User: Fold this.
Amino acid sequence: MKYLVHLARVLVGLLFIVSGFIKLNDPVGFSFKLEEYFSPPVLDLPFLEPYALAIALFVVVLEVILGVTLLLGYLRKPTLWTLLATIVFFTFLTLYSAVTGKVTDCGCFGDALKLTPWQSFYKDVALLVLILVLLAGSKYINPIGSRLFRAGATALALVACILFANYVLNHLPWIDFRPYHIGASIPEGMVIPEDAPAPVYEYDWKFRIDGEEQIITTNGEYPEVEGEFVEVADTREIRAGYEPPIHDFTLEREGVDYAGEILTRPQLLMVISYDLDKSHAPAFKALARYTDSAAALGYSVIGMSASSQEAVDALKAANKLDFPFYFSDQTTLKTIVRSNPGVLRLERGIIRQKLHYNDLEELELQPLTEAARYNMPLKKSLDSIMELDQKYRAEAHQGDFSNWGLQMEIDSSNIAWIDSVIAVNGYPGKSQVGGETSKAAWYVIQHSNRIDEFLPQIEGAARAGELPFRLYAMMLDRQLMRQGEPQIYGTQGTSFYMGSPPEKVDMIWPVAQPGKVDSLRKAAGFDQPLEDYGRELFGEDFVYRNYTIEQAREMWAKQNIQQ
Assistant:
């Protein structure tokens, strides 16, 4: 019994110290796990959620101190009974998680070691047995050193825990066990190997055989039975497949995920706030200075949040933040950085720096050469495409259409190439190829008959600041006019020759909101009111007339000569 108690003492003491230290290294992460337990779908204790961090700190410090006092043999009876109460509580939680399946990871060892609910329960049962052994053989737990030494060592451990907790709360975890640690490649973390095991499912097939309904269970294959198939009654996952370390990273705007394109950018600065309402608001004032500096040096800057667009717009306006925000899952953002807000600096998807808002002065920014800033092979190709797009257009604008057939062949080749580029890299915007070159793909699409196919990518690029918004406005108006619908921004004009002898009628194609069109134009980046734009388009004698869409369609049907 004596030796069994000694073994149990060492095992329990060390396990409590290690488990407590791992969670103390990341108390914010442990508080997120407690919030999950307190949520209505689990234990339904929402009134405890605001105190999750305080409870997390108390629990993890208690774990470490209990491990220390057990190894020292200090306050023997209070230590043993507190250990018993603690392990009974943890065993209840892990059993509840395992039986209900509502919490898939207890967080016993933080992100350092992931255990399934049943593995966590069995671990706690083993600890419970060892602690009962300690209680039964408590007389064999001999103290180490003098009482003053034991009290001093315990006090020292407590002070060390408090100082360490204060450090990681005001900076970041000392050791980062998450898949978003410095040096990690986010794109590589999302890759599923070709030989990765797939999940295995069990299917319950309901058949009517000889007038009676029967359930036939298989692992997916259709049952070879004689009878009438009724339905698949149930489906269960009996073995999970491979899940990559990073499996829920997205950068969404308007329902479109831009992660694939953004993570290829040579130099990227991410500002992350999982919940703007819970963020440290004063930090954004300082962040604005750093993000402005980064953008001026050539870095691509984005924000990531799970908050609403209204909250994002209010934050940007209040702090003069001049970069686009993307939506991502709140749990993912909490996992990426334990700071709200926090900052990441990446190179082509590889995390080079991760900073708490208290450590922004440590951000390493260097002026970027064009080669470091852009995808140079793509930029050079697009510059060539831009030249080809305009090769014979100037002649046509001057009335010489002798080479127009050659221009059409070039346009056909250009749009096919742009299609392949967008399929791989997304829209090649200013972060990839620079401001001027970012217009190349737009010109090619604008001169094609496939605007409707590419308009969503153009809109996404414009709203993300990768393309001047006015170019999207022009393309949208052109497509609406082609469809015979009112335009939004009044960028498209046309001329008809009506009557006999033919009389030229110049027209700004009808707009959907005549009373608001000038304000819409200004917001989109056009500096001229609609009437002034019309005179620039058709000459000083042009008089703007607000035609109805029905009048425009009737004129188009009679004589569709578009300028």
